[in-house]
Amino acid sequence: MDEDITQVIRGGAPYLLGPSGKTEPIEAPEGFALKRILGRGAMGAVYLAERREDGQLVAVKMLNAELTSEERVLDRFRREAELMLRLDHPNIVKAYGVGMCAGSYYLTMEYVPGETLDARIQRDGRIAERVALPMMRQIADALAYSSRKGVVHRDLKPGNVIIREDGVCKLGDMGLALLEAREDLRLTAAGTSLGTPLYIAPEQATAVRDIDTRADIYSFGCMFYHALCGRPPFQGDDGLEVMRAHVHETPVPPRELVPELSEGIEAVILKCMLKDRERRYQNGSELVQYLALIQAGVEAEAGGAGSDGGTKAEPGPPSSRRSHEMHFPFDGGSPRAT
Description:
It is a single chain. Helices cover 33% and strands 19% of the residues. It has 338 residues and is an alpha+beta fold. The chain folds into 2 domains: 6-110, Phosphorylase Kinase, domain 1; 115-325, Orthogonal Bundle (Transferase(Phosphotransferase), domain 1), CATH 1.10.510.
């Protein structure tokens, strides 16, 4: 979020005053009244707006008018709108509609008041397991739903997770998402990678073309690691160095950084982050299954009130137990809540 941006009013028309001191008029889409800016990026900006017919607050994402002549950018914006409009899940930001205003496209979305997971990590340093587990379980639910719909996010990161005051978490920003088996090759040039380096899957970093939901599983593991440990699994002086680490290096086990973490959570995170995607959780539903078992064990151990502790859980199906035992220091056995 761009905290330096403020709104000023001139002659009843909203202008935005940016860090450079320049102002620009912003025309509101028909039927909406712009209230303030929520954030700004390379492709445009997101505004808080009021829908005139019922007073409901919504978020309006407006594409930078200067980019409307670039077909590649327009295709990506249209794709984001198409994907968001077809998704309806309590842990995914809901899209309401798309339109055009003053020569630029806009997308109206659910307004989610709260803070991003990134802001929470920056404020608290790291998040206790008993708090992070139910939050990440919600994002895993969103991934399971998206996977069933054939949608791959491709840019999972703490900045794309919004946490409401009541604890509900929402996954947003589908700008890099794609439909499995229906990627438009014009949008991804050969030899390029899409995603955020701190959380990018090895296959994305090496520009593998058949990216699927298992890349999101990897990024989920990186996010969970960052939330619990207060630092991402790999760091470097630049994005290329970080991406090389995702491809070639092994992350420090979370319990070496935070010894009080449960073995089950560590095992789940490390399984999500396996280099070989054939050995990760294969979809969001499988990931949710194991998180649910661990969460049940944590709550049972604390008498239903939650705890920093947890239960020991095998991170994969018993049929693949041998390969897991080569990488994780825990006893074998089927996942279970104790």
